[in-house]
Amino acid sequence: MPVDGTGQDPIGEDARLTELGARLKAAKQTEKIRTGTLRQGPDKGYRQGSRVLAELIAGPVGGGLIGWLFDSWFGTSPWLLLVFVFLGFAAAIWNIVKISGQRAE
User: Whose CB among 22, 77, 99, 104 lies 3.0–4.6 Å from 71's, allowing a Cys bridge?
Assistant: First the structure.
């Protein structure tokens, strides 16, 4: 190495290494997109829509099953079935409100 101070940091001076670092970063980003570990914008909306649909189906159906079971045990048909279907629907709406308030990732 020269004594005058030039060439003290050969890695920092080499533009090829800087360019290689940028190319590696771009390649990693492309690989994340290709393998699905980095999601694009439309996928988030699709996932939220699927969750909303699942809540709208599962809430009233689950409540209806519980209400039907309680009605068969207590002999109160169809009152507990109706109450639990409406409770399931209310729970589904509550969960949908929480889902819609989530920040996009």
Answer: 77
Q: How far apart are CA 96 and CA 73, in angstroms?
A: 31
Q: Which element (helix H / strand E) includes 96?
A: helix 79-100
CA angle 97, 100, 105 (to 5 degrees): 145
Q: What confidence tens digit (pLDDT) does each residue in 41-76 have?
A: 567 778 888 999 999 999 999 999 999 999 999 999
87 or 4, greater pLDDT: 87
Counting Cα atoms < 13 Å in the Cβ hemisphere of 58 gives: 11
Distance between CA atoms of residues 62 and 68, nearest Å: 10
Token couple for 92: 């589904």
The H helix count followed by the E strand count for the chain is: 4, 0
Q: How far apart are CA 99 and CA 43, in angstroms?
A: 15
Asked if residue 88 lies in contact with residue 63, where contact means CB atoms within 8 angstroms, the answer is yes
